């Protein structure tokens, strides 16, 4: 027997932002038994002794009262530290550029939080993510959001069938401006609140300074792909492929772009000009692969992919390797693909899943560049 | 189901008689007690009568009662007021690790101002040792502040012994009686307590009002500056209707002390019996002999307090635990930490249930069953999860 909405408890993760606020409102309007929960994942007290999560929690309190739902908080600082932040630091140690939001969704929002919600008698959990879930071929599939610009399936690529079968994304059918408009119409306290940017635990702070408090930075040489010494870097972890700003080098032939790292010798490689072949690659290897609705039947198939958030889809050929990892060959050369980021695969509007980029293949048109270390470009 | 309120240690619903007294005062009393006209005199009489009622109940003189904005303010006034007024005699203060934050954070502030504070340990039942206090006492100790009974676990401290120990020492003795007031006989005539702070809202009185008893002769410095109200110890126009309500609430405690104790004991018994009948594994955090009847703190092994409290609230049972941080998440209780040690399971899996007057037995049983069911569910989930 199917439950009616009023018998269906939906526990929604509320961040104090406009998206989760409107998601909660919509669920409430649909008649669900809605419970709002604020996750405290990071212990942070600023120089004035104020916990930075306080303001966001205060917003959760205000909008929950406006909407008329009970609200609570839950502390996942320990889980976040162990399962997300430790991973984040390890990736940087390997010279990669990790995506903590992907890990946070996998381990916290759709695991620790989901477990918590289930213990509270939830039938579903909901979040303010822009994504959709739908049944396709007898399985639950993750579908891109209607708002292509806001679509967040990229960050949700590591979720399992079991996880998404218990998830509701009330904003998946809406455009962001509509969400703001709904918030305004209902005079919700977060209607004009600025969207959060950047990585949640770093916030508005200087990224370099933040990272340096957790990881030792080793100064080293910046060399061109031809081996010429161009200057010195502050630590390889501060740089990412395609980066132009903050290198502190000029001179003839520039502007200079990061195109690789040699972890063993602590060298940062740069190439002159955005169009330089060294910034382009033909394919990649990915591990930590997840298939949301099960692994594909074919070991080689064509689909589209994103190598970073908000990038337009690119046509690729996917080869499933025996160990479960992927070799992905681009139809066209791709610029500044970055190890540590997610590669996410799509079949039309369905997000198939994804993996973590481990290696870049055939960098440079003449394939002459050979940074043999695992972390190199 | 209508929710069941089992958090009377946080605050109590207002007593209808108290409300009536306040309503009448709001409706009929116009003046400011400091005014010299008939309206002022009418207000002044209510304040004086109320002060007299309260003084009489605790065995004090009227002039020894200072109306405050509640328990925390009383604690602050007593501690800061005597510390700064007596610092020429010494800067050493003794308190305990299980005090209310109104005391603990005030002491921490004094440390930042150059005072030296000792925080007494407690045993696993939440009691301090008078012997320990004796050893920590110094010639330059100017204040000892120990709560009468703990608000989280209900443990009653050896107040009489402490008071007598300090009778021949320069140190003043302050006790926070906020939680104890409604179910413990208070008498400052026989017990040499120098200061005692109390809040109205824990005994069916109004919120935002309380009093501080300050024994004649105690040197106390004021912290609100302005008018000469409260014998220059607390400036500001008196909250006349609430003072009237507070007096009525205190008076009612006096009239019904025995029944209050009995009804809380009964409620406690019903709750514990229900949990026993349901075969739930629990332990009582507190002292088996010296405890407040209306507070019971229970440790449920294998549960996680944040989940348990949320689950109970969603099932209509309102209980509490420790205190929430400003971002809403529950911090491990400093009281349970002092009793069981940092990170001990009791600090992560305990809730406080607190009872009021005239609780319906069937509703208590209902609540007990919900608690039992919730605990069982969480324990079994925890076992699967691990």
From TrEMBL, chain A:
Main localization of the protein described in the UniProt heading: cytoplasm
Coiled-coil parts of chain: none
Domain tRNA-specific 2-thiouridylase MnmA-like central: 208-271
Cell compartments where the protein resides: Cytoplasm
CDD domains xref list: MnmA_TRMU-like (cd01998)
A Pfam short name: tRNA_Me_trans_M
Reactions it catalyzes: S-sulfanyl-L-cysteinyl-[protein] + uridine(34) in tRNA + AH2 + ATP = 2-thiouridine(34) in tRNA + L-cysteinyl-[protein] + A + AMP + diphosphate + H(+)
Major enzyme class: transferase
Site keyed Interaction with tRNA: positions: 129, 341
Keyword Ribonucleoprotein: no
Enzyme Commission number(s): 2.8.1.13
Keywords: ATP-binding, Cytoplasm, Disulfide bond, Nucleotide-binding, RNA-binding, Transferase, tRNA processing, tRNA-binding
Residue intervals of the tRNA-specific 2-thiouridylase MnmA-like C-terminal domain: 281-357
Location of the region described as Interaction with tRNA in the Swiss-Prot/TrEMBL record: 150-152, 308-309
Binding annotation for ATP: 13-20, 39, 128
UniProt GO MF annotations: tRNA-uridine 2-sulfurtransferase activity
Active-site residues (renumbered): 104, 200
Chain segments carrying region Interaction with target base in tRNA: 99-101
Function, in words: Catalyzes the 2-thiolation of uridine at the wobble position (U34) of tRNA, leading to the formation of s(2)U34.
NCBIfam families to which the protein is assigned, alphabetical: PRK00143.1, trmU
Protein family according to the UniProt entry: Belongs to the MnmA/TRMU family.
Entries under PANTHER family matching the protein: MITOCHONDRIAL TRNA-SPECIFIC 2-THIOURIDYLASE 1, TRNA 5-METHYLAMINOMETHYL-2-THIOURIDYLATE -METHYLTRANSFERASE
Protein name: tRNA-specific 2-thiouridylase MnmA
Designated gene of the protein: mnmA
TrEMBL record, chain B:
SUPFAM superfamilies in the record: PLP-dependent transferases
Taxonomy of the source species: Bacteria, Bacillati, Bacillota, Bacilli, Bacillales
InterPro entries: Aminotrans_V_dom, Aminotrans_V_PyrdxlP_BS, Cysteine_dSase, EF_Hand_1_Ca_BS, PyrdxlP-dep_Trfase, PyrdxlP-dep_Trfase_major, PyrdxlP-dep_Trfase_small
Iron-sulfur as UniProt keyword: yes
Catalysed transformations (reactions): (sulfur carrier)-H + L-cysteine = (sulfur carrier)-SH + L-alanine
Protein family according to the UniProt entry: Belongs to the class-V pyridoxal-phosphate-dependent aminotransferase family. NifS/IscS subfamily.
PROSITE patterns on file: AA_TRANSFER_CLASS_5, EF_HAND_1
Cross-referenced NCBIfam families: PRK02948.1
Catalytic EC class: transferase
EC numbers: 2.8.1.7
Name recorded for this polypeptide: cysteine desulfurase
Entry cofactors: pyridoxal 5'-phosphate
Domain (Aminotransferase class V) ranges: 4-362
Domain of life, source organism: Bacteria
Keywords, in A-Z order: Iron, Iron-sulfur, Metal-binding, Pyridoxal phosphate, Transferase
Organism: Sporolactobacillus kofuensis
């Amino acid at each position: 027997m199917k439950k009616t909405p009023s018998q269906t408890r939906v526990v929604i993760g509320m961040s104090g932002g406009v998206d989760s606020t409107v998601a909660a409102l919509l669920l409430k309007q649909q008649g669900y038994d809605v419970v709002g929960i604020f996750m405290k994942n990071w212990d942070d007290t600023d120089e004035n002794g104020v916990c930075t999560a306080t303001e966001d929690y205060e917003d959760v309190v205000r909008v929950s009262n406006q909407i008329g739902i009970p609200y609570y908080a839950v502390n996942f600082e320990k889980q976040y530290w162990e399962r997300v932040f430790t991973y984040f630091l390890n990736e940087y140690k390997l010279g990669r550029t990790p995506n903590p939001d992907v890990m946070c969704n996998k381990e916290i929002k759709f695991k620790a939080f989901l477990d918590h919600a289930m213990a509270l008698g939830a039938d579903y959990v909901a979040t303010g993510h822009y994504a959709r879930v739908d049944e396709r071929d007898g399985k639950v599939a993750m579908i891109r959001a209607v708002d292509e610009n806001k679509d967040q399936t990229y960050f949700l690529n590591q979720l399992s069938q079991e996880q998404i079968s218990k998830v509701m994304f009330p904003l998946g059918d809406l455009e962001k401006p509509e969400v703001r408009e709904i918030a305004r119409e209902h005079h919700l306290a977060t209607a004009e609140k600025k969207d959060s940017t950047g990585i949640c635990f770093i916030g508005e702070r200087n990224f370099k300074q933040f990272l340096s408090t957790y990881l030792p930075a080793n100064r080293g040489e910046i060399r061109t792909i031809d081996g010429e010494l161009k200057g010195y870097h502050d630590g390889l972890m501060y740089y990412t492929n395609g980066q132009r700003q903050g290198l502190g080098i000029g001179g003839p032939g520039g502007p200079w772009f990061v195109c690789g790292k040699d972890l063993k010798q602590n060298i940062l490689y740069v190439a002159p000009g955005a169009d330089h072949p060294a910034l382009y690659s033909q394919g990649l290897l990915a591990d930590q692969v997840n298939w949301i609705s099960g692994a594909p039947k074919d070991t080689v198939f064509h689909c589209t992919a994103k190598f970073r958030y908000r990038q337009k889809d690119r046509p690729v050929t996917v080869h499933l390797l025996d160990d479960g990892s992927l070799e992905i060959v681009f139809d066209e050369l791709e610029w500044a693909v970055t190890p540590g980021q997610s590669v996410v695969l799509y079949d039309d509007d369905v997000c198939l899943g994804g993996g973590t980029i481990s290696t870049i293949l055939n960098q440079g048109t003449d394939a002459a560049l050979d940074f043999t270390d695992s972390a190199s470009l | 189901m209508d929710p069941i309120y089992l958090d009377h240690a946080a605050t109590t619903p207002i007593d209808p008689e108290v409300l009536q007294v306040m309503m009448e005062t709001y409706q009929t009393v116009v003046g400011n007690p400091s005014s010299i006209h008939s309206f002022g005199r009418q207000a002044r009489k209510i304040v004086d009568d109320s002060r007299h009622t309260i003084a009489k109940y605790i065995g004090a003189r009227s002039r020894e009662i200072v109306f405050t904005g509640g328990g925390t303010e009383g604690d602050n006034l007593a501690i800061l007021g005597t510390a700064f007024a007596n610092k020429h005699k010494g800067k050493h203060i003794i308190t305990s690790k299980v005090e209310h934050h109104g005391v603990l954070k005030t002491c921490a502030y004094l440390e930042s101002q150059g005072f030296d504070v000792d925080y007494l340990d407690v045993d696993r039942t939440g009691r301090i040792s008078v012997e320990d206090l004796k050893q920590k006492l110094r010639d330059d100790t100017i204040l000892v502040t120990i709560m009468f009974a703990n608000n989280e676990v209900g443990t009653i401290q050896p107040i009489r012994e402490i008071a007598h120990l300090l009778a021949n020492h320069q140190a003043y003795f302050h006790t926070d009686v906020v939680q104890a007031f409604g179910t413990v006989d208070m008498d400052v005539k026989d017990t040499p307590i120098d200061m005692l702070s109390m809040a109205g809202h824990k005994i069916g009185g109004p919120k935002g009002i309380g009093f501080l008893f300050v024994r004649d002769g105690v040197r106390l410095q004021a912290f609100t500056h302005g008018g000469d109200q409260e014998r220059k110890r607390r400036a500001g126009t008196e909250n006349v209707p609430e003072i009237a309500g507070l007096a009525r609430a205190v008076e009612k405690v006096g009239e019904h002390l025995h029944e209050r104790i009995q009804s809380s004991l009964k409620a406690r018994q019903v709750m514990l019996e229900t949990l026993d009948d349901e075969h739930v594994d629990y332990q009582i955090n507190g002292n088996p002999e010296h405890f407040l009847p209306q507070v019971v703190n229970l440790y449920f092994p294998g549960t996680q307090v944040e989940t348990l409290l949320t689950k109970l609230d969603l099932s209509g049972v309102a209980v509490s635990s420790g205190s929430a941080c400003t971002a809403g998440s529950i911090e491990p209780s400093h009281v349970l930490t002092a009793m069981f040690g940092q990170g001990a399971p009791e600090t992560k899996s305990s809730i406080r249930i607190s009872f009021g007057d005239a609780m319906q037995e069937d509703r208590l049983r209902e609540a007990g069953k919900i608690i039992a069911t919730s605990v069982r569910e969480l324990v079994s989930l925890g076992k699967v999860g691990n």
